C-alpha cells in the first residue's frame, strides 16, 4: 500500500516553469489532468478545496461533505478563507530540495500541485494544523508563501506537494510511524515504517469486501464483454473462437452453472459473447438469455417485464438495460445481467466460495472450460482475416484510456482489465454497432452493481447515447444485430462465416431446389439487405407470387408449382430438356427507400425434365421388367417397362414363365415421379431385333409413329400420350431361320401437356401430334429395350 505525506515547503524553480493557476474563495475545484495524483493505486484528475467552519478540506472524489467519504484530507483552516490552485509542470531532478525533504522519493518528478492559502487581508497564514480524518494532527510552525524574485532566474514559491500520504484510499485513516496496527476498519494489518511509508496486508480474500468492522463478505464481479472475460479476481482471459464455455460453476449453489456462447460478427477472426445459458442440472432446465432481450426456457420463449418472475427458482426480469436473472442458495446470491453484448455476473454471500469456470478462482486454461454440448461443429477453427486499414490502434488506445480519466475515476474498480478488453477488440474490429461505447458501459455498470457507485455524466462526456441498441430486435442464428450504415438503424446482418460461402459465389442464397412438380429458391434476407434489397417488393413473373420469410431463420423462399400454380413460369422445350423457368424481379422504382434508385432486380431460376435417355438395356423376357431412374437436373422420375401375360396387367411374367409362340404379351411403359397435369408419356416407336443393339440385322416394327403397325393385326396400343403411362400388346414370334433371343426396343419421349395435343392420331398415315418438342428422323433415338428367348 502506498502512503502519502502532505508537505508545505519552499522551492526555487526556474523561470521557464509552466503553470496553470486559479483563485478560489470559500471553495473551488481544478482539473489536474496534467499532474494527476496517484492515491492507493487510483489516479485522480481533479482536486476539490473548501473551507467549512474552521476546517480546510482537500478532496479528490467530489466536494467535501461531512459524513461523505470523498477521499478528503482535512486540516485546520486557521484564519485563511481563500487561496490559489496551481499546477506547475517541470522536470524535478533527483537531488532537488524536494528529494532532500522526502528521502523516500527516489525518482525524478515531472510536476507539482500548489495550494497557497491567504486570509481576507491577503496575508500569509503563519500556522496550520492538519487533521487526517480527525484521528491525528500535525503542526507546522510556519508557512512559506510566494515572494518577490530572489534571483534573476527564479522565484520563491509556496508549494503543497502530494507524494506518499500515510492513509489507505478507501477510508482515509492515518497511522503512527514505526508501528504495526490491525485495523478492523479496512480488515487489514498495517505497518507504517519510520519514513512514513505504509503497507497493508488484507485479511479478506480476493473475492471478498471489508465490511468496516473487521469482517469480510463475498462481493465479487465477473464481466464478459466481446471475447474478454474479466474474472472474479481481476484476471483477464480471451476466448479465441466461437464455442461455448463454462463461465461460472459455484460450489455453494449445487447443480447450477452459467455458460457463455461466443460467435463471430463482421469478421471471422473476432468473436463476441452471443448468448448466456443458465443451467439447472438436476432438473434438466436451461434458460437462454439471447440477443435482443429474448429469453427462452428450454424451447419456449418467455415474456418478461420489469416485474420479476420466478422460473424454477430463478428470478427473471427485463428492462431497457437488458435481462437480469437471480438465484439464491446457501446464503449466496448470483445475479446475471445480459444486454445482448455484455454479461455481468455478481456474486454475494457471507463468505467466499470456490467457483469453477472462466470467471472462477481456479487456474484452468480457457480450452479446459469448453462445453461441447453448446459448441457447434468446427467452432474451434481459427481464421485470419485481412487487417482493417481504417483502424488506427493508437487512436483506439487513447479512446480506451478514457477509463483512467474523470468521471470514471469515481469508480473503485481497476480499469486496466476493461482497457485491455477494449484495445484488444477495437485494434482489430471497426467501431460500429455501438461497440465504441460497449466497454465504457461495461465498466460503468460494473461500478454500479458491485460498489453502488454511479459514474456521473459519462455518457454526455463521451457522446455515448442511452438508447438500448438492438433491444427487442431478434436475429436468426446466422445473423447478428448491427448498423447497416454507421449511426443508422439496427438491422439483422449476416455473420461473416455464414456469408462467406455466398459472397464468394456472388449469390444471395442456396441453389434451386426442384421437387416432384415444384421449384423453389431460398435466399438469405441478410444478404439481400446488404444490397439494400427489400424482399417484400420482390415477386415472380406473376406479381401475386411473392417471397415468404421464415420468422425463425429469416430465409426468404420463392416457389412455384408446375401443376397447380406456375406463377407465370415460362416452359421451354428442346431436344434434351423440358425446362420451367421463372424470374425473381421487381419493377423499376425510383422512390426513396426502395432497393436502389432506378435499380432493377432480375434473378432467374429453373427446373427441367430430361427426355428419357435409356439405351441398350437388353434383358431376357423372363426377367419381366426394366427399371431406370432418370435424373433431370433436380427433378427425378423413374421409367419402367414391364411385361404381362394378361390385358389387366396383373400376371407379370416371372423368371421361369413359359412363353409360347403366337402368345399375346402385354408391355406397360410407366413413369413414377411425373405430374400427369404437367407432362405426358408418349411411346413413339417399338420394334424387335435379333441383336441387343437397336440397329440389329433383322428388324420388325411393332409401334410406328405412336400407332400400331397396320400390317400386324395382333398389335394394340392403349393410353399413348394420354397419361404418364401407356401399354401395348403383340403376339410373340421368332425370326425365320433364327432360334436365339428376340430383343424389344422402344423409343419414348415426354410431351408438355399445356398447349399441346400429345396423343398420336392413328387414323392417318403420319403422326399429327403438335408437341412443342418437334422431332426429326435423323435425331439420335432414345430407347428402352427388352428381350425374350424364342
Characteristic key phrases:
790 residues; mainly beta; nine-stranded antiparallel sheet; seven-stranded antiparallel sheet; 7 helices; 39% strand; elongated; disordered N terminus; ZP domain-containing protein; VWF/SSPO/ZAN-like_Cys-rich_dom; signal; disulfide bond; ZP-C
Number of strands: 52
Structural class by helix and strand composition: mainly beta
| Annotation field: number of helices | 7
Distance between the termini: 110 Å
For the largest beta-sheet, the strand count, sense and barrel status come to: 9 strands, antiparallel
Radius of gyration: 44 Å
What helical percentage do the residues reach? under 10%
Give unreliable regions as ranges.
Answer: 1-16, 123-172, 589-599, 614-624, 628-634, 764-782
Keywords: Disulfide bond, Signal
Signal peptide: 1-19
Pfam family, one: VWD
Protein name: ZP domain-containing protein
Explain the overall architecture.
By secondary structure, the protein is mainly beta. The protein is 8% helix and 39% strand. It is built from 7 helices and 52 strands. The strands form 12 sheets. Strands 18, 19, 20, 21, 28, 29, 30, 31 and 32 form a 9-stranded antiparallel sheet that branches. A hairpin with a 3-residue loop joins strand 31 (332-338) and strand 32. The model is unreliable at 1-16, 123-172, 589-599, 614-624, 628-634 and 764-782 (pLDDT under 50).
Amino acid at each position: 500500500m502506498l502512503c502519502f505525506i502532505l508537505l508545505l515547503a519552499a522551492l526555487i524553480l526556474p523561470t521557464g516553469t509552466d503553470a496553470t493557476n486559479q483563485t478560489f474563495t470559500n471553495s473551488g475545484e481544478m482539473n489536474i489532468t496534467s499532474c494527476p495524483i496517484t492515491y492507493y493505486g487510483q489516479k485522480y484528475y481533479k482536486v476539490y478545496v473548501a473551507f467549512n467552519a474552521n476546517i480546510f478540506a482537500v478532496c479528490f472524489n467530489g466536494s467535501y461533505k461531512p459524513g461523505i467519504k470523498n477521499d478528503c484530507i482535512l486540516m485546520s483552516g486557521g484564519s485563511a478563507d481563500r487561496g490559489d490552485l496551481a499546477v506547475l509542470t517541470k522536470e524535478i531532478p533527483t537531488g532537488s530540495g524536494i528529494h532532500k525533504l522526502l528521502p523516500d522519493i527516489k525518482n525524478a518528478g515531472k510536476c507539482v500541485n500548489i495550494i497557497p492559502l491567504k486570509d481576507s487581508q491577503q496575508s500569509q497564514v503563519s500556522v496550520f494544523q492538519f487533521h487526517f480524518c480527525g484521528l491525528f494532527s500535525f503542526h507546522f510552525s510556519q508557512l512559506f508563501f510566494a515572494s518577490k524574485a530572489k534571483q534573476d532566474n527564479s522565484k520563491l514559491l509556496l508549494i503543497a506537494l502530494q507524494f506518499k500520504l500515510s492513509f489507505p484510499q478507501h477510508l482515509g485513516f492515518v497511522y503512527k510511524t514505526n508501528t504495526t496496527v490491525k485495523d478492523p476498519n479496512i480488515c487489514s494489518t498495517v505497518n507504517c515504517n519510520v519514513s512514513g511509508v505504509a503497507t497493508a496486508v488484507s485479511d479478506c480474500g480476493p473475492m471478498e469486501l471489508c465490511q468496516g468492522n473487521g469482517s469480510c463478505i463475498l462481493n465479487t464481479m465477473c464481466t464478459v464483454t466481446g471475447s474478454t472475460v474479466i474474472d472474479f479476481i481481476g484476471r483477464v482471459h480471451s476466448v479465441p473462437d466461437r464455442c461455448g464455455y463454462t463461465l461460472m460453476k459455484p460450489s455453494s449453489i449445487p447443480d447450477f452453472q452459467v455458460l457463455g456462447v461466443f460467435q463471430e460478427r463482421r469478421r471471422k477472426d473476432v468473436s463476441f459473447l452471443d448468448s448466456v445459458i443458465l443451467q439447472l442440472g438436476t432438473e434438466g432446465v436451461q434458460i437462454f438469455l439471447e440477443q435482443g432481450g429474448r429469453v427462452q426456457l428450454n424451447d419456449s420463449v418467455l415474456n418478461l417485464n420489469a416485474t420479476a418472475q420466478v422460473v424454477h427458482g430463478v428470478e427473471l426480469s427485463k428492462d431497457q438495460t437488458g435481462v437480469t436473472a437471480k438465484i439464491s442458495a446457501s446464503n449466496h446470491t448470483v445475479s446475471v445481467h445480459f444486454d445482448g453484448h455484455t454479461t455481468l455476473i455478481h456474486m454475494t454471500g457471507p463468505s467466499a466460495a470456490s467457483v469453477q469456470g472462466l470467471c472462477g478462482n481456479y487456474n484452468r486454461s480457457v480450452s479446459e472450460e469448453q462445453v461441447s454440448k453448446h459448441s457447434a461443429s468446427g467452432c474451434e477453427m481459427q481464421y485470419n482475416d485481412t487487417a482493417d486499414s481504417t483502424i488506427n490502434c493508437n487512436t483506439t488506445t487513447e479512446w480506451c484510456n478514457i477509463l483512467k480519466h474523470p468521471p470514471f475515476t469515481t469508480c473503485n474498480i481497476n480499469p486496466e482489465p476493461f482497457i485491455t478488453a477494449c484495445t484488444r477488440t477495437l485494434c482489430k474490429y471497426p467501431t460500429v454497432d455501438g461497440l465504441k461505447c460497449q466497454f465504457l458501459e461495461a465498466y460503468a455498470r460494473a461500478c454500479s452493481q458491485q460498489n453502488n457507485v454511479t459514474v456521473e455524466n459519462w455518457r454526455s462526456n463521451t457522446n455515448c447515447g442511452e438508447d438500448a441498441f438492438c433491444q427487442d430486435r431478434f436475429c436468426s442464428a446466422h445473423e447478428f444485430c448491427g448498423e447497416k450504415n454507421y449511426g443508422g438503424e439496427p438491422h439483422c446482418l449476416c455473420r461473416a462465416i455464414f456469408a462467406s460461402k455466398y459472397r464468394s459465389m456472388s449469390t444471395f442464397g442456396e441453389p434451386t431446389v426442384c421437387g416432384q412438380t415444384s421449384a423453389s429458391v431460398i435466399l438469405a434476407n441478410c444478404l439481400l439487405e446488404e444490397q439494400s434489397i427489400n424482399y417484400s417488393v420482390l415477386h415472380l413473373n406473376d406479381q401475386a407470387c411473392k417471397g415468404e420469410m421464415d420468422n425463425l431463420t429469416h430465409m426468404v423462399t420463392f416457389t412455384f408449382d408446375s401443376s397447380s400454380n406456375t406463377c407465370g413460369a415460362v416452359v421451354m422445350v428442346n431436344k434434351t430438356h423440358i425446362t420451367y423457368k421463372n424470374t425473381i424481379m421487381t419493377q423499376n422504382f425510383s422512390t426513396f427507400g426502395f432497393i436502389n434508385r432506378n435499380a432493377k432486380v432480375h434473378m432467374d431460376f429453373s427446373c427441367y425434365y430430361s427426355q428419357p435417355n435409356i439405351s441398350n438395356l437388353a434383358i431376357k423376357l423372363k426377367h419381366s421388367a426394366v427399371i431406370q431412374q432418370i435424373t433431370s437436373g433436380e427433378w427425378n422420375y423413374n421409367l419402367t417397362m414391364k411385361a404381362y401375360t394378361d390385358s389387366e396387367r396383373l400376371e407379370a411374367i416371372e423368371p421361369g414363365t413359359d412363353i409360347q409362340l403366337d402368345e399375346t404379351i402385354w408391355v406397360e411403359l410407366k413413369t413414377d415421379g411425373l405430374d400427369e397435369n404437367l407432362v405426358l408419356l408418349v411411346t413413339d416407336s417399338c420394334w424387335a431385333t435379333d441383336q441387343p443393339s437397336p440397329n440389329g440385322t433383322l428388324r420388325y416394327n411393332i409401334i410406328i409413329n405412336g400407332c400400331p403397325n397396320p400390317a400386324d393385326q395382333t398389335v394394340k396400343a392403349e393410353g399413348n400420350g394420354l397419361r404418364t403411362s401407356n401399354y401395348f400388346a403383340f403376339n410373340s414370334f421368332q425370326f425365320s431361320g433364327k432360334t436365339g433371343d428376340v430383343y424389344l426396343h422402344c423409343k419414348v419421349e415426354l410431351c408438355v401437356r399445356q398447349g399441346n395435343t400429345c396423343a398420336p392420331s392413328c387414323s392417318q398415315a403420319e403422326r399429327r401430334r403438335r408437341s412443342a418438342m418437334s422431332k426429326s428422323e435423323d435425331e439420335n433415338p432414345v430407347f428402352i429395350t427388352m428381350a425374350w428367348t424364342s
